[in-house]
Amino acid sequence: MIDTFFMNGQLNEATGFLVALAIGILFGFILEQVGFGSSKKLSGVFYFRDMVVFKFMASALTTAAVGMGILWSLGRMGPENTYVLPTVWGAYVVGGVLFGVGFAMSGWCPGTGAVGLASGKYDAGVFIGGVLIGSIVFNELYPVIAPLYTWGDQGVVYLHESLGISRHGALVLVAIIAVATIGVSEWIERRDISKPAPAHIGARILSIWQVTRETARADRGFLIFLTGIGAFTLVLLMVTKDYTSEQAMLKKIAAGEDHIEPDVLARRMLKANTNLLVVDIRPKEEYEAFHLKGAINVELPNLPGVLARQPRDMDIVLYSNGMTHPAQARDALERAGFDNVYLLTDGLNGFIDRCLTPVSLRSEPVPAPLATEIRLWRQHFLLAALTK
Amino acid sequence: MNKPAKRYINPYLGGMLLGVLLVMTYLLLGTGLGASGGLARIAASIEGIFALDHVRNSAYFGQWGDAPMRYYLVFMLIGVFVGGGISAFLGKRLKRGVEKGAAASIKRRMTYALGGGILIGFASRLVRGCTSGQALSGGALLLTGSLVFVFSLFVSGYISARWFKEQWHD
Question: What pLDDT does residue B5 have?
Fold first, then answer.
């Protein structure tokens, strides 16, 4: 893991300040070189006059996303050494709406405003003054709007989590949207506005596609961008692993959601029609010597075949004397796509201890309701074995 | 000032360059780029000049203590200003004045610049960032919130742009 200033606490020390300053200089330089020192050019995006804002943001975001995606997948960067902002739905939507109006109104945003001011634009200076005032207004209103500030706070949420896809999938999706945005931008700028746009949506999409291809041929910058992200995305997909599904499974295991407690299982087994299938995964001889009444015997390699024949809403509980084999089997089955498999906590030995040992033989006192249940369970599970 | 300005660079190349810079920023600082954060700190300092105790006790500005400018984003913002100035100088684009449509009045343009600034100053605190910090830097990490912010901002911008069209009329 790379030792960033955020991680080692030097961010707000002299070295951090110096590095931030240097980065800022490069940042401001690039912004101005692209033309963002001009509010007229910036606001052009809203009037379909000049789509540079979309072209620039799409290529910048995608380039950075691919780069960070590779670093993140290789474990060099992660939440430990990166400052990650939370997702606060309410605040961000409301803030986004206000920001959009402000951007369309002024033709600036904070970064470009600084560049505009440096270029000599008085309107940028007034804009910056407005931003300072707006920040102060926020501070003054904060006691009142604090609920809005945290409205819809989900903590750190990634796109792939919100969409339920893999992390690599989310990156590819964003890249596709970025290229489509660029295509639409080029199409908007190039088309002959004296002629009406193709009416049919299919013809319009084809037209945008053609313009995108033309741009790739004619605009060397765009070609370099496409080649670059294409190549690096390929590297990302081939060289790194996407652990999204494994992480989801590990979270489930950590939360204990893959277990079922013996008493919970016992109660459920005594009821009829609960969509439950209990599977004893021990060798046949052990099963025949004693097993839980109602459980079937399936040896490990046969599990997928048996489970595949069960209805989708069936809950499957695996047990053995201990927990190791059932846990291993459960995880293998989950990876194979069976998401309804559980293991018995503490195994058959634990079940016998907690549910079938007579009250009189226990070292701790047992509350009356549980004592009644234990008697019922002994009758149900043991009588069956005795009268087998 | 009659020398023609140099051309802007290709937006895709510029975008790629910024993307690479953003990755380097994450590698070095562990944070993304930012501009509004610096301005908020400066605002806290300015309000502190007039009402220090009030600022110290404020729920929002108060959390930054007595030296709110001791913050990396303030230095980054200064850098943006310097870098922008250098680039404008080299590109022969240094020009004092108010940029607006030929037929528009300076008063209208300045009113919009101020009003938009106030809105953005407020909104950027609400979203913990702006187009650089939230949209670009957060978007590069594929954070849902950042992408929600970008979407919301452009939809809102497109809808409201019609109200502010006159300032660009030639």
Answer: 80
- State the pLDDT at residue A211: 85
Do B4 and B85 reside in the same domain of the chain?
yes
Give φ, ψ of A93 to 5 degrees.
Answer: -70, -50
ipTM (interface pTM): 0.97
Q: What is the pLDDT of residue B42?
A: 97
Rounded to 10°, the helix A122-149/A89-106 angle is: 160
Mutation target for A interface from B112, B134, B151, B162: give the one with most A CBs within 10 A: B112
- Counting beta carbons within 10 angstroms of the beta carbon of residue A231, is it exposed (0 to 12), middle (13 to 18) or buried (19 or more)? exposed
Residue type, A187: W
Final residue of a structural domain among B52, B69, B96: B96
| B115 and B50 fall within a common domain | no
> Residue B37 belongs to what domain range?
1-96
Average pLDDT over residues A126-152: 97
Q: Which residue has the tokens 């490069």?
A: A26
Total domains, chain B = 2
Q: How far apart are CA A271 and CA B51, in angstroms?
A: 71
Q: What band does A266 get if pLDDT is binned at 50, 70 and 90? A: very high
* Cβ separation A24–B78 shorter than 8 A: yes
Please tell me the CATH code under which domain A250-386 is placed.
3.40.250.10
Last residue of a domain, one of B96, B124, B149: B96
B84 with B55, same domain: the answer is: yes
pLDDT confidence tier of residue A214, bands split at 50, 70 and 90: confident
**Statement to judge: residues B63 and B8 lie in one domain:** yes
Question: Which of A30, A48, A128 to probe the B interface (max B CBs under 10 A)?
Answer: A30
Taking only the tens place, the pLDDT of each residue in A295-325 is: 999 999 999 999 999 988 899 999 999 999 9
User: Which of B29, B88, B127 shows the shortest C-beta gap to A16?
Assistant: B29
Interval A6-14 mean pLDDT? 89
For residues B108 and B99, the answer to whether their CB atoms sit within 8 Å is no
B92 plus B103 within the same structural domain: no
Query: What kind and span of H or E run contains A278?
Result: strand A276-280
Q: Please answer yes or no on whether B131 and A123 come within 8 Å at the CB atom.
A: no
